[in-house]
C-alpha cells in the first residue's frame, strides 16, 4: 500500500509541475527587427481582429496567427483578444461570410511565426518568449 501511495503522489507532483510550467509560459509579440512601431496589447488586439491594418508608423500590418490547436493560440486568444478560440473563430466566420474581412494567416508553431516575421518587415506574430531568436524583435504584451 505504501509504495502505491508514494507512486501516486510522485505522479501527481510531476503532473502538477508540468501544468504549472506550461501555464507560466509568457507570450510576446514578434516583429521584424527594423519595425519601430509602438505596439501594445490593445493595438495587437485590433490588428489580430482585423479592426486595424497599419502599425503606428503607417506601414501595413500583416498578422500571423498560430493554428487553433496550438497552446500559444489559446493563450493569445484568451489573454490578448479577450475571447475564447471558439469565439474568435465565430467572429472571423461572420466577417468572411459578409465579405468584411479575411482572417490572419495561420502557421503551425513558433518557429514558423519567427521565420515569416524575420523575412517580412510588415509581419507581426506571437510566440512563447523562450522561442525568440535574434532574427526578430520581441515586444512584451504586459
Side-by-side strand order of the widest sheet = 3-2-4-1-5
Residue share in β-strands: 15-25%
Q: How large is the radius of gyration?
A: 18 Å
What is the SS-derived class?
alpha/beta
Notes on the structure:
The chain has 142 residues and is an alpha/beta fold. It has one domain (26-140): D-Maltodextrin-Binding Protein, domain 2, CATH 3.40.190.10. It contains five helices and five strands, in the order αβαβααβαββ. The protein has helices spanning 2-23, 41-48, 71-79, 85-97, 110-119, and strands at 27-31, 62-66, 105-107, 123-128, 137-140. The chain has a five-stranded mixed sheet with strand order 3-2-4-1-5, with helices on both faces. The protein is globular, with a radius of gyration of 18 Å. It starts with a helix and ends with a strand. 23% of the residues are buried.
Give a brief rundown of this model.
The protein has 142 residues and is an alpha/beta fold. It is built from five helices and five strands, in the order αβαβααβαββ.
Keywords:
142 residues; 5 strands; single chain; alpha/beta; five-stranded mixed beta sheet; D-Maltodextrin-Binding Protein, domain 2
Task: Map the helices and strands.
Layout: H1 2-23, E1 27-31, H2 41-48, E2 62-66, H3 71-79, H4 85-97, E3 105-107, H5 110-119, E4 123-128, E5 137-140
Amino acid at each position: 500500500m505504501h509504495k502505491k501511495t508514494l507512486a501516486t503522489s510522485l505522479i501527481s507532483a510531476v503532473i502538477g509541475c508540468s501544468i504549472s510550467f506550461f501555464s507560466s509560459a509568457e507570450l510576446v509579440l514578434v516583429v521584424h527587427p527594423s519595425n519601430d512601431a509602438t505596439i501594445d496589447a490593445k493595438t495587437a488586439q485590433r490588428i489580430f481582429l482585423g479592426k486595424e491594418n497599419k502599425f503606428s508608423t503607417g506601414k501595413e500590418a500583416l498578422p500571423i496567427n498560430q493554428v487553433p490547436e496550438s497552446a500559444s493560440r489559446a493563450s493569445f486568444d484568451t489573454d490578448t483578444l479577450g475571447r475564447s478560440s471558439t469565439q474568435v473563430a465565430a467572429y472571423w466566420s461572420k466577417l468572411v461570410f459578409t465579405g468584411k474581412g479575411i482572417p490572419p494567416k495561420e502557421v503551425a508553431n513558433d518557429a514558423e511565426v519567427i521565420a515569416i516575421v524575420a523575412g517580412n518587415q510588415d509581419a507581426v506574430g506571437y510566440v512563447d518568449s523562450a522561442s525568440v531568436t535574434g532574427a526578430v524583435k520581441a515586444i512584451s504584451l504586459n
